[in-house]
Structures are given as structure tokens and as C-alpha cells.
What does this fold into?
Amino acid sequence: MTAISPARPLTIVLISVHGLVRGKNLELGRDADTGGQVKYVVEFARALGERDDVEKVILLTRRVVDKRVSSDYAEPVEQLSDRTSIVRIECGEATYLRKELLWDTLESFADNAYDYLKTMLRAPDILHGHYADAGYVGARLSHRLGIPLVFTGHSLGRNKRNQLLASGVNRLEIEATYNISRRIEAEETSLSVAQRIVTSTQQEIEHQYGLYDFYQPELMRVIPPGIDLVHFFPPRENQGNDLISNELKRFLKFPRKPMILAVARPDPKKNFVSLITAFGQSPELQDAANLVLVAGNRDDIHEMEDVTQTALSDILAAIDRFDLYGKVAYPKHHKSHDVPVLLRLAAASRGVFVNPALTEPFGLTLIEAAASGLPIVATEDGGPSDIIKNCQNGLLVNPLDTKAMADALLDVLQNKRQWRRFSLSGIERVAQHYSWQSHVEKYLDIVRPLAEKSVPIVRMEPARRTGIYRDRAVFTSLDLNLIGDPESLAKLLQILRTNRKLLIFGIATGRRLKNALVALRHHQIPMPDVLITGQGCEIHYSPGLTKDIAWRRHIEHLWNPQSVRDLLHEVSGLTPQPNSDQSDFQLSYYIDTNIISVQEVRQILLRNETVANVVHSFGQFLDVLPVRASKGLALRWCAEQLDFPLENTLVSGVTSADADMLIGNTLGTVVESRHRDELSKLVGSENVFFSNASYAAGIVEAMNYYSFPQMKDQVDETIVTVH
It folds into this structure.
């Protein structure tokens, strides 16, 4: 096997081990392993093979001999074109196995792949591993053959683990079922060997890869995925005669109005309620357009999962609250092939596509809308900013500002010249930035210098952590703690960034989620790893604000909110806070302690056999929560889920609502504030430090006081935060 002249066309070997891979009739959705990644690598291989500067593309995957699946997957070689082929490699047991069971067979796959590659007349120029298993195989082959490795993670184990924990799967079960530690180690191995890492967005680099020991941003390149322009294109004549169009007409009094279209799965993070609120509060917007919400498929909402059920119920309640019947369409069912049709219908109506998500890692539907000639209004958080920068076809908005959202939608709808400019720019620039042709062009620009060895590679030698997971944490309240002094906050956040591979950063606040996000955005505080809101009633994890559903089920125990409302309805000294500050698990009041004490409120509930947790804070706020909910209990739940010891957890607070976080085995800190007297009972408690400094400076002072594990030197210079 001989090396080639750099001037000759490239030979590229793609590796995608798991799933059922073939060139035609892809069985997408058959199982968790045969989905978007399989579709991507097959289409990517085809697109590479169409290039004149690519001589050969080989897609290595696992050979499967199993009566339960098609015999296609047993064929050793499948030609996709003259230049492109799928080559199936023996990999231990021949039957079809889910990817989590393949780890012990990957050495066999690597050896057999090596033997196959040695039979080639000339060596490949590039190896490209897709996902952790193929990255590991690619690393082994790269070492043996001396060929540059490129790696694409597709999804990463550290993030996956957090998602599983949030869904209620315990740590031992995650290890037993998903072999997550081996996956993370394989990802570290891949990152340590790869000369380039290809991602879809800059956010993915910072918020996901940034947690790995072998995080090397200088080796990472963003190449947005290509989309199929065969299915997504501008409207033609006779739009509006499709079944989905007729389905929408059932809902709308004036169906010929421009369409504000939103398409997403039913999830609170997608923020459809804020979109409905923006629409409902703007008579001008209601006059200008109809709102069309495509939120998954539903039959009986009460039979759906908790998160989906909550999201859909909130959507329907918001429509009802603003009496938007005849102005909003929300079809129960749609098929995947309806989405391109909906986009063309919206474009033909001179409408707008909107993505109001709280955070959006990429935003594929925005690209599909652009290809359809439909201008967009999208969240400013995440990938959409890159898309609008590239396509120049819409506006970014703060997803928490409903007035700004309504104004942006009206701006696009009413300015006809701007609408046409956005429409034409989207069509043109999608082909330039997001077609398969542009995707491959950018890819080859990145890998060609590696093949030609025209770029020096400087590899890092990082100190590996002693364990796979972060084993220490900083949790802090928000108001009068993090918020209050911008200078000390900046120092604290820098410390946390410096130590992001060692530390889990958490915020615990009495604010509701959206209110907390507004505060974080206003004070430029990055999204923490853990966000506890509603005095401990909700837990969300980064990246992506994944909600801990298991915690929600846990705190439902003995909770009877209607009983609490009835008992406290006419109690003198208690005034309910606005509806925006209430939730299913947090009943919030203003309390006048000159009229009634907190203890008297507790006694009213106890005398009536109503079990609840009563929390008083900042002198005037009183929250009634489920008995299993509090900041301290939520913190301890997170410690169990994420496996960090309380003894390695520095916690800071300023009010009595923080008390149960500060006591026990944590490293407690009471930060100087005007509400400090609420925590005076903790004076003299073991492991509770009272700082002299206020706000974030008090947290930095506590780090020095506790010589916070392996951080003393960094703290003395300037200190911490996340992502």
C-alpha cells in the first residue's frame, strides 16, 4: 500500500459502525440506532463521491447476518456509485445488536477493517469516524496506518447521561444499559487522536465538547449539515389543495390570511406558550395573520408522557385564555412529508416561520423554511444566529420578550419589500451554505490540508481527571448573591470557566424558570449545568434545559394544591402573587408578618392535615411547596443523580429559603446581605461560613476560606464558572 501525491484526488474512508446501513430504502426509525446518523453518512458518502477531486469513498459499517433483518445488511460490498461503496466488516457476533452491546467487539472490527484497508492499492488519505464507537475504531486505525483521523460525535455521552438522569434512569441502570462510561472514554480517545473535529454549531463546541479533557477548540470546525433541496423548494402554482391544507382550514375563520407557522415537538422548551401570548396580546398581529402550530401528533393527551401532556395542555389553555378560536390552527396529526408542504403554503401566503424556543442547538427547520422561500423569526439563543447571519433572511428575538416577538413578526409581515428580500436571500443562500454541495466543499477544504500534510498539528497533553465525571460542585442562589456586583460576578464566572472540567455549576432560585432565564440573560450569566427553580420545584440540566421528569414525579407525593388554596384563601396577611409567579407545585404569596407569622401559616395547614413545605424569603415572600420540595432537597437529588459528593459541594445563600442547602455535609456560605438575619440561627453551625464580602465576592471569599478542593491557586488569581 503506497501513499499518493497530494495533487491526486482523495480517497476518504468513513466509519459508522452501528445501526442498519444500506444505500436504498433506509429503515429510519426502526430503532434508536437507525436514524439521523445513518441517513447522514449515506448521503454524505454519495455527495463526496460526486466530486471530481475525490477518487473513492468507502463507508465502513458492521456486517449483520440475522434472519430478523434484511439480507442486504449481510452483503460484504454495496456499490452506491462508481466511486462510492458501502463495505461491511465482520464485527464479533454476526447478529444485529444495539450499539451499547458492541464495545467488546470493536477491537475485532478494527482488526478486520485494517486487513481490508491493507488490500487497497493505495492508502486512504482520510479516516472519518462517526459517533464514539467509530471514533474509537478510527483512532486504532489511525495509529496503525499513520492516516489522519477526523471525528464527528453526532451526540456525546456526557450530555446523554444528563438526559437519562433527568428522565429518571438511575446511575447504575445507565451504566448497565448504556455502558456510558465506556462511551465517554471512547470519545476522549477519539478527541485525543483526531486532527479535526467536525461539529454543526459553535454552541456544540463550547457547551458539549468543552466538558471533555481533550477539548481542543483550535482543532474543531463548524460545518452545518446539508439539506435535501429536492424536497424543500419555493412554492409553485396550485399550492393549497393538499390534505394538510384542508386540515388547517377546519380551524381558521379566514384561511387566506398570511400564515405564522411554527413546527416543533410538544415540549415546554419550545416555548409555544410565549408565541401564543405574543399573538394573543397583539390585536394588530391577529388582524395581519393566522397562527399555525404543528406540535407533533396526538390522540388522547392524557395518555401521553408527562412533559408532552403538560406542553400540549399549556398550549390549549393559552389559546383558550386569549380566545383565539378561528385564528389559530393546531392539527392533531401530520406526516413528515407534510412539513415541506406546510412551509410552501406559508411562503405562498406571504407568511413567516417562527422558532420561539428558549434555546435551539441548531435549527434544521429554519434552513428548510429558508429553502422554501419563507422568511424567519427565531430565538437569539443558539444556532439560529448562525443561520440568519448566513442566510440574511429574518430576525432574531429574545424568546422571553413576547412584545419583541410580536413586533418582529409584524415587521416581517407588513414590510413587503423586506419580505421579498428575505425570501429571495433565503433561497439563494441556503444553496450556498446548507446544500450538500456546500457541505462537501467546506469539508474538503478542511481535510485536504491534512491529507497533504500542509498544516502542522500541535497536540495537547492534558492532565486527565482521576474519574470520568466531575466530582465537585458550586451551587448558589441568584438574587443578592450572584446578582448585585458586576465586577465580582465577572471574577467568579471566570474562575468557573477555568475549572469547568472539574466543577458542576448550579443555581438554585425561587424564581420561575422563565423569570430566572430573563435574569441570567440580563446579567450575562452563562447557563449553569443545573438550574433549580421555583424554590426547588423544578430542575433543568444543560445543555438544552433538559427537565428532570423523575424529580417532578418524586415531589408529587402527598401534594394537594387545591387544599392549600382553599385553606389560605381568606387568611389575613396573605396575598396571592400574580399568576405568572404560580405553578403546579409552587403556590406563592406576599406575607405581612405584622399580621400573621410563618409558623401560624404552617399550623393552619397542619391542623387541616395538609402536608406541605412552607418557605419564607426576603422578608415578604411565602411559598407553599410539596413536602418533598425545597432547594436543599433538590440539591441533594442532583448530587445523587450526577454523582458528586456533598462534602465537595460549596453552597452559598442569603435568605431563609437557602437554609437547608447550607447545612449538613455541604460547605455552606452565608453571603453578607441585608437579609442575613434570616439565617442568624446558623451562626456557629459546623461547615457554615459567614462572609464579610457581599454578592459574588462573598462566594470567592468562601472558596479561599474552604481552600476549595484543588482550586486554591486559581482562586487567589481570579476565579470560576461554566461552559
Summary: Confidence is low (pLDDT under 50) at residues 1-6, 711-723. Residues 416-433 form the longest helix (18 residues). The first strand starts at residue 10 and ends at 15.
